[in-house]
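Quick illustration for those who missed Monday's session on complexes.
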Amino acid sequence: MEIVHVSAECYPYAKAGGLADVVGTLPKYQQQLGHIAKVVIPMHRTKFLLENVWSVEHKGGFMMGDRHLEYTIIKEKTNKLDYDLFCVDIYGLLDRENIYSYDDDTERFTAFQIAVVDWLSHWEHRPDAVHVHDHHAGLIPFMMRNCFAYRHLAEVPTVLTIHNAQYQGWMSWDKSNYIPDWDSWQWGLLDWDNTINPLACAVKCADRVTTVSPSYMEELMTSANGLEQLFVQEKFKCSGILNGIDNVVWNPATDTYILDNYSLPDAAAGKQLNKKKLCKDFNLDEKLPLFVFIGRLVAEKAADLLPQAIADSISQLGNKMNFLILGSGDKRVEDQLSYLTGSYAGYYNSKIGYNEKLSHQMYAGADFILMPSRVEPCGLNQMYALRYGTIPIVRSTGGLKDTVVDFGEPEDSLNALPGQGLGLRFNYASVWDITYSIHRAVELYDDKDKMAEIRKQIMQIDNSWEKSAEKYINLYSSIQIK
Ligand code: ADP
Ligand code: GLC
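Prediction with alpha-D-glucopyranose bound:
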């Protein structure tokens, strides 16, 4: 099968979060299963673009409203990622340093999608599936069926994967002329609540819809930032397929970012050496349990609760633990987290920003990772943590619920999915639930045998993409036209 993935991000070319990790890895595993997987993303001006060699694959042009736009499709020449990576350049709109957050994002991503469909329409053959990720690619299934110029793509099967339904790509109806001439009888497919909603449009138009964990799919029926009713209506074509991780990139035995490589037999010593280095770099006490948080400092991740939860834990338990936070996002939370450094020097530190290398060192050196997320469609951090022998402390939601069971539950009531990891779980995104879990973790840390037993168990869990990559292949097979 030949699959074309369309996304805003792809690791290592351009990453803002887990979407990049997934789109960067799933195609690799699909290739290993004997299929041809291709990825197409906007041409962001990143290090990867500048450091690699590219060939021009196709050039074309289209009208977007009253603007004529020219695009170029370039391809990474050396097959560095084990699959073909294509980038779309559009003069004046793409070729920028950041992935998102420009005032003209609507124009940028609409133009990107038109260019992708236009390019596909010039292929001499048809791919077996076009797999679009999140709202940045959400108009593509609509355009393949309803734009007069692209109707010969109408039969190509399409799949939408929702990594995050909080963001939907809303655009006002006065921008409907951006979409190349389309069958206006079909306006209802674009609309949700009097707005053009690219995510809702993709849910309506794609042949199949997946979310990145089964629990998140269920949650969307009752909580989907306004789209609940749509998910209920379209339930028949929706399913949840749990993300995997790249076992090669995320491997403590070979990770070149960490100080000391380790695997199961020498995990205790290996982790301690990594912890020692981390604690030295951040002025923390290596003898105390180390709790980390890595991620976007936004409400979805409940990052706003961290400053209070950390302050309460230290004041209630005394200096019995260390915290290290890595992240960026909401300015107010960034400031609060930086401010705490002054109050709890020696036990708390933070690094505001994005730092891939430091994130690996934290997965390796930490004892516990905190994930109090209000919304977590899948979450990859907990799976990386498990692989590095770091115990996840998670709120029971979405993919966190599907990948982590509480170590305290009786064995026979665990009801675990195959491969579920052990950690600490709590129900509410509240300061109290987080501090209570930290108390439990501090107690667990003192039980060295139990810690070793849990570490041994979690490091053996296979969360690689193999199983899930196969599930996507089966999904594409089920929608082929006979
Ligand atoms: P999301 O995509 O919602 O941000 P995920 O758990 O799926 O959450 O993936 C987050 C990914 O981004 C992980 O690979 C994590 O290590 C990485 N990450 C998040 N914030 C940072 C940061 N500040 N520095 C380095 N890596 C980060
Ligand atoms: C989104 C979700 C996250 C998920 C990631 C990859 O960013 O917030 O939970 O792991 O996509 O699918």
